[in-house]
Amino acid sequence: MSKRITVAIDGPAGAGKSTLARRIADKLGYLYIDTGAMYRAIGLWAVRANVALSDMHRLEQLANEARIEFVPGSGGVLLNGEDVTEAIRAPEIAEAASKVSMVPAVRRAMVAKQREIGERASVVMEGRDIGSVVFPDATVKIFLDARPEVRVERRAGESLLPPEIIARQISERDQRDRTRPESPLVQAPDAVYVDTTGLSVDDVEAALLKIIRDRTSNGKERTQ
After folding, report:
1. Closest CA to 59 of 81, 35, 41, 80
2. What is the tens place of the pLDDT at every residue in 80-107?
3. Packing angle between helix 56-65 and helix 35-48, nearest 10 degrees?
4. Radius of gyration of the chain from Cα atoms?
5. pTM of the full structure
6. Please, what is the Cα angle at 134 between 214 and 126, to 5 degrees?
7. In whole angstroms, what is the distance from residue 126 CA to residue 53 CA?
8. What backbone phi and psi angles, to 5 degrees, belong to 145?
9. What does 177-220 look like in DSSP terms, one character per residue?
10. Taking a C-beta distance cutoff of 8 angstroms, is the pair 30, 123 a contact?
11. What are the CA-CA distances from residue 96 to residues 32, 42, 223 (Å)?
12. Where are the beta strands (DSSP E) in 80-199?
């Protein structure tokens, strides 16, 4: 049986984590895990169940009871058997997810589920605490970053909101992520720092694949 490989990609909002992690997973034939989608799923369930986002006890219950699955190859997300891939991308769910992710008990529940997934398959997992908390012994750790104005520009291209609002949201999100007591956003000491400012997606992909291949003999592209 071949050894399971864990590629941990962390970084702030707008650094390119989701796009790159999905492409890398596809190239290597690994399972792509968007940990942010897991918090969005809990946020969605909380909104649907009319659970107050300040009710930490009920949020913990939802997080423990949630069955979150990722569909290999498609990036699809299932919550308790329901395809919620599109539903979790609504702006109000993103805001709910941000608040839900601040609850320590919810983060602990999600970390446990993320580790379970990583025990079953080779994965490319992206988030904000993967290399530092979820998989401190990950095979490869990468920290993606970019200048704030570049991150805002990228998010503006995906949203109908004015750039100034997106800039404020990203600034607030960075502050919450870096200062929360449970699993803050930090670069793991042994993570490779990659600044994506001024680089194309193809350039970053090539750089990440080289990093992965330099660290594992299993980093070969999947043959079609």
Report:
1. 41
2. 999 999 999 988 898 899 889 989 999 9
3. 120
4. 17
5. 0.87
6. 60
7. 24
8. -150, 170
9. HHH-SSS-----TTPEEEE-TT--HHHHHHHHHHHHHHH-TT-P
10. yes
11. 23, 9, 40
12. 82-83, 123-127, 140-145, 192-195
DSSP-based three-state secondary structure for 49 = coil
Residue carrying structure tokens 């329901």? 82
**pLDDT tier, 173 (very low <50, low <70, confident <90, very high otherwise):** confident
| 147 token code pair | 């200048």
**97 CB contacts (<8 Å, ≥6 apart)?**
36, 39, 40, 42, 43, 88
Structure tokens belonging to residue 159: 């949203």
Q: How far apart are CA 15 and CA 146, in angstroms?
A: 5
Structure-block tokens of residue 83: 């395809």
Q: CATH 3.40.50.300 spans which residues of the chain?
A: 1-30+124-215, 35-121
Beta strands 76-79 and 68-71 are antiparallel
pLDDT exceeds cutoff 50 at 148:
yes
Domain 35-121, what fold? Rossmann fold (3.40.50)
Which amino acid is it at 176?
R
CATH fold, domain 1-30+124-215, is Rossmann fold (3.40.50)
**Residue 205 to residue 154: CA distance in whole angstroms:** 17
Structure tokens at 42: 């809990």
Cα atoms in the 13 Å half-sphere on the side-chain side of 115: 14
Give the length of the chain. Answer: 224
Structure tokens that stand for 8 in this block: 């941990």
Q: Which residue reads 């895990």 in tokens?
A: 33
